[in-house]
Amino acid sequence: MTPNPRQLELLEQVRARGSVSLETLAASFGVTLQTVRRDVKLLSDAGLLARFHGGVRVPSSTTENIAYRQRQLLNEAAKQRIARAIANAVPEGCSLIINIGTTTEAIARELLRHKGLRVITNNLNVAAILSDNADCEVIVAGGVVRSRDRGIVGEATVDFIRQFKVDIGLIGISGIEGDGSLRDFDYREVRVAQTIIERSREVWLAADHSKFNRPAMVEVAHLNQVGKLFTDAPPPSPFPTLLSEAGVACNVAL
C-alpha cells in the first residue's frame, strides 16, 4: 500500500509513543473511530503496525525488516533533513563508502552537486543516483544483488570492500538498542556493514528517530565505533548518555 498523509502521520504518532489507543488517535485527527479502525487495518495488513484490543503498536519483529517500498515512504521528510545535513558536512574531494538503505539513497541525492568524490557502494540505487554526477567516480562492489532493494551482499562484497581505505563510511541502520548496539536483519548485509566500518577512517551513522529502541536480530557494531550520528530529533533516554560515553558527536537536523 501507499499510505496517505493521515496514515503517515498516524504511523509517526505510534512510532513516537510505542503504542496508542484507537480513541486517542481518533481524537488527535478529529475523525471517527471507524475511520481510524480502517486506517489501522490497512497499515497492519501491510505489516507497518500491530493491532491489539483497543489500540495499536509498532511491530516488534526482530527477524524481518519492513518492505523496501514501504520504508521509502516512512519518515521521508526526516530522511531528507538528515541527508542535507550530511551532504553539508561531506567535504569535496573525499572518498566514501555508502551502504544499503533508503536514508543513504537520500544522502546520495544530496551529493549530486559535490565535486571530486570517489564513492564505493554496495547499493545499486546509490550508484544509479550518483552516476548522474560527472564529478563523482562511482565504484560498485561485486556480490549477490537482492532483488527487493538492489543491495549487494555476500562474501564477494566483503572481499571487494577490504581492498579500500576511505575517508568516511556512511552507514544506515535498522535499529539502535538501549545497550548502544547497532542492529540489522540480514547477516549478509551486516558482514558488509562491519567491513565498511573497518575500512573507514571515520564512520558516520544516519538514523532517523524511529530507529532508536527498535529491535533487530543481528548486531552490526556499537555506538563507540561511530564518530558522528546524524538524526532528525533529539534521541530519547538513555541515548544521550550512551552517545556522550561513546564520544559520538550527535547532529540533529531540525
Structure in words:
- The protein is α/β, with parallel strands linked by helices and 254 residues long.
- It folds into two domains: 5-60, Winged helix-like DNA-binding domain superfamily/Winged helix DNA-binding domain (Arc Repressor Mutant, subunit A, Orthogonal Bundle); 70-252, Rossmann fold.
- 38% of the residues lie in helices and 24% in strands.
- The chain is built from ten helices and 15 strands.
- The protein has helices spanning 5-17, 22-29, 33-45, 68-73, 76-89, 102-110, 124-130, 155-161, 187-198, 239-246; strands spanning 19-21, 50-52, 55-57, 95-98, 117-121, 136-140, 144-145, 152-153, 166-172, 175-176, 181-184, 200-206, 218-222, 228-231, 249-252.
- A seven-stranded parallel sheet has the order 6-5-4-9-12-14-15, with helices on both faces.
- Strand 5 (117-121), helix 7 and strand 6 form a beta-alpha-beta unit.
- Helix 2 crosses helix 3, helix 5 crosses helix 6 (102-110) and helix 8 runs parallel beside helix 9.
- The two termini are 28 Å apart.
